[in-house]
Design brief:
Order of helices and strands: EEEHEEHHHEHEEH
Helix content: 25-40%
Radius of gyration: 19 Å
Strand order of the largest sheet: 5-6-7-3-8
Number of helices: 6
Strand content: 25-35%
Distance between the termini: 72 Å
CATH class of the largest domain: Alpha Beta
Largest sheet: 5 strands, parallel
Bound molecules: adenosine-5'-triphosphate
CATH superfamily of the largest domain: P-loop containing nucleotide triphosphate hydrolases
């Protein structure tokens, strides 16, 4: 006779994020109108929408950098956020720029530099890095954090094809290790099994208000 244990149910994926009905105004403008989404371990969500649709605003709200006007963001673990600014001090070397992230994080600096092809630039002042190298340096901070949830706002800006491939490999490894990410991008990413969440432009709402 068969017992229930002969038919094990698949493991329930670990939930990393719940966004419930988040609404955000910037000034008088409605930017996010009741956005809901969830993210589980292993997920990669591509956040799409036209310029000004609120992609960066949503990532900042999820990160806690701004409060939603209504709705709720529930994070079940640490997160790392990559914004538009690379935030490197020009006079410090690459290693010095990443020292604090290394200290606060749980991952190895040599491993992160290697994965992003930055090892040969370790002792170079950040002001001498190219824009693509700076972008990879900023991404290294995300890797160093050891946070399971990554919020990546246009991570590929300034990257060449080989660097985008490297980033794709790093993201795949993170997912395989139980991490997850939300990525805004205007270019295709080398990622498998992504989910997509499209934010509509609410510009018409503003013009309605002003009329
Ligand atoms: N500091 C601010 N004060 C007021 N409004 C702002 C501010 N920053 C952004 N906005 C407005 O919020 C809206 C959403 O901006 P956001 O940067 O989130 O869009 P986005 O989808 O990330 O755009 P893009 O694709 O151009 O990066 C835009 O209409 C923008 O003008």
């Amino acid at each position: 006779m068969t017992s229930p244990s002969d038919f094990p149910t698949p493991p329930v994926p670990e939930r990393l994020l719940d966004v419930k009905g988040v609404t955000v105004f910037r000034g008088d403008r409605l930017v996010l109108d009741g956005v809901s989404l969830t993210l589980d371990a292993g997920d990669a969500m591509i956040l799409t929408g036209p310029n000004g649709a609120g992609k960066s605003t949503l990532l900042r709200t999820i990160s806690g950098l701004r409060r939603p006007d209504s709705g709720e963001v529930i994070r079940y673990g640490d997160l790392a956020w990559l914004g538009h600014q690379d935030a490197l001090k020009p006079g410090l070397t690459l290693a010095q720029n990443l020292a604090l992230a290394e200290k606060l994080g749980t991952n190895s600096l040599p491993d992160a530099l290697e994965a992003l092809d930055l090892t040969h630039l370790t002792d170079l002042p950040a002001r001498l890095l190219s824009s693509g190298q700076k972008r990879r340096a900023a991404f290294a901070r995300v890797m160093l954090s050891g946070a399971p949830l990554w919020l990546l706002d246009e991570p590929t800006v300034g990257l060449d094809v080989a660097s985008i491939e490297r980033l794709g490999a790093v993201m795949a490894a993170h997912r395989a290790n139980g991490g997850a990410m939300i990525v805004t991008t205007h270019v295709p990413l080398p990622l498998d099994n992504t989910r997509s969440h499209e934010l509509p432009s609410l510009a018409h709402v503003e013009s309605f208000w002003l009329s």
